[in-house]
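Figure 2 data, in text form.
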Amino acid sequence: MKNFKESKKPGKLFVLSAPSGAGKTTLCKEMLERFSQLSFSVSHTTRAPRKGEVHGRDYFFIDRQSFESGIERALWVEWALVHGNYYGTSRSFVNSTLEKGGSLILDIDVQGAKQIVAAFPGAVTVFIMAPDLVTLERRLRGRGTDSEEVIRQRLENAEQEIMQRDWYTHVIVNDDLAISIETLKAIFEGELA
């Protein structure tokens, strides 16, 4: 986590959701580079690390028993079971960061976003989407990291997620990355001012 100047004013919570391949990770990275008071909330997961992922940077990789124990003890401000693996955000980390005046960006799915807003009604929600499913499929295939079965599952999930976009405060269609960056930057500037 970045070092930020502690403030008496609580920080802001930003929630970004998107189907796989919409460009959410790229947009998150761009915002983190532009706003010094903004940190990325690293989620916990029970899935195995992918090539190049680092514990504590990309995710906190924990075993299923530890995660389920965290559910019982209400340690997660949001959590979900996705494709057989748990993902969740630490309640204590979010609370302590916001109380100290730091702002957080969470990269989570629709299900998690709704849990965050229930706990933090002032959270700023942004849904990122590709211009259409054909473009989304092309992006997923272009990654070269997923099997045909995984791509099909991601596209099915994308349709369900896109149907919930109107629930979000802001929706950005990521057709042109430079324009999407500027649009998201304007949202963050307005909220952090």
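Caption note: The chain is about 40% helix and 20% strand.
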